[in-house]
UniProtKB/TrEMBL annotation:
PROSITE patterns: HTH_LUXR_2. It comes from Winogradskya consettensis. Residues 270-334 form the HTH luxR-type domain. InterPro entries: AB_hydrolase (IPR050471), AB_hydrolase_1 (IPR000073), AB_hydrolase_fold (IPR029058), Sig_transdc_resp-reg_C-effctor (IPR016032), Tscrpt_reg_LuxR_C (IPR000792), WH-like_DNA-bd_sf (IPR036388). SMART domains: HTH_LUXR (SM00421). It holds the Pfam family Abhydrolase_6. Gene3D superfamilies: alpha/beta hydrolase, Winged helix-like DNA-binding domain superfamily/Winged helix DNA-binding domain. CDD domains: LuxR_C_like. GO terms for molecular function: catalytic activity; DNA binding. This is LuxR family transcriptional regulator. One of its GO terms (biological process) is regulation of DNA-templated transcription.
């Protein structure tokens, strides 16, 4: 699958970049704190999530102002500004859509569904909260905000450990670099402060769309109590609790999360067969089976080492394996 990039322009000139994957009825995906449409698509685990969600539908994601491919603006972050940006995406679609919010995007999605019920078919909330002030103690919030503002490198490392504790060290390092590439320290601090300030407790009862709340029980960034609060406040909401500690939706058991969401949206759970590797992936898998390192694969194929690493990771994810040894065994068995 390939993503298609476009942009919308708000009345005040704010530019918001968005990406579409797949075709069919739209699923608008309101992402969490910091994002980058291009770099996120290049992260194998994150891309695998979007490809799985986008089977048979049109998945639409966007970078909020000041993040990723959306230029910085002078306007301060606020829930009202978040809704303006989402509104521009909705206007570009011109039809009702399913709406999914993750992390900070969850309360934003709640606010939109409450204010514009005619636009939302179904609502999915993952890793979200009702009141940001309940996510962590005031002392912890102030410490994290100060760390992000004064030492963005260390702050991104700390937050990555909270967001993806089950990821290995190299993956966490890559995610920390990704966060720093998404925005400036000032923007990161401002958006994080907004996530702590958002309160949609008065809006939950106004949500009319069928709603699914999904949360991992050991989520260290958003306590599972917030999932219960969302489910209790939205009439008829379905609550599904999954095992795991990772806050990022593409970390941990991504396949089970996708299965739950697609079932709720009335979509089939699609699984790729192992023989659906691309020709390039089959080449890389063969070299892995020969014991080649990423650097050796890069030299043999005339690509850079990072591209080789990405190919290996996508093969591992597509086959559902945890190690290179399993890839090698799979090649040998065939």
């Amino acid at each position: 699958m390939q993503q298609r990039l476009d942009r919308v322009v708000l009345a005040d000139g704010t530019v918001v970049a968005y990406a579409s994957v797949g075709a069919g009825r739209p699923l608008v995906y309101v992402m969490g704190w910091l994002t980058h449409l291009r770099l996120g698509w290049e992260l194998p685990a994150e891309r695998a999530l979007y490809e799985a969600l986008g089977q048979g539908i049109r998945l639409v994601r966007y970078d909020r102002a000041g993040c990723g491919m959306s230029p910085a603006v002078d306007r301060p972050a606020s829930l009202a500004f978040e809704l303006e940006q989402l509104g521009a995406i909705a206007a570009a679609l011109g039809e009702p859509f399913d709406l999914m919010g993750t992390s900070m995007g969850a309360p934003v999605a709640v606010a939109w569904a409450a204010a514009h019920p005619e636009t939302v078919r179904r609502l999915v909330l993952y890793g979200g909260w009702v009141r940001g002030s309940d996510v962590s103690a005031p002392g912890v919030r102030n410490h994290v905000l100060g760390l992000v503002e004064s030492h963005w490198g260390l702050g991104s490392d700390v937050l990555t450990d909270i967001f993806a504790p089950d990821a290995d060290r190299s993956t966490r390092a890559e995610l920390a670099r990704y966060q720093r590439a998404c925005s400036s320290a000032a923007t990161a601090r401002e958006l994080l402060a907004l996530s702590y300030d958002i309160d949609v407790s008065d809006l939950l009862a106004q949500v009319r769309a069928p709603a699914l709340i999904v949360h991992r029980t050991g989520d260290r960034a958003a306590p599972v109590a917030q999932a219960h609060a969302l489910a209790a406040g939205i009439s008829g909401a379905e609550l599904v609790l999954l095992a795991g500690r990772s806050h990022l939706p593409f970390a941990g058991d991504r396949d089970e999360l996708v299965r739950v969401i697609r079932r709720f949206l009335g979509l089939g759970v699609t699984r790729r067969r192992p023989d659906e590797l691309t020709p390039r992936q089959r080449e890389v898998a063969d070299l892995v089976s020969q014991g080649c390192t990423n650097r050796e694969i890069a030299v043999r194929l005339g690509i850079d080492e990072r591209s080789a690493e990405g190919h290996v990771e996508r093969i591992r994810l597509r086959l559902g394996f945890r190690s290179r040894a399993q890839i090698a065994a799979w090649v040998s068995s065939r």
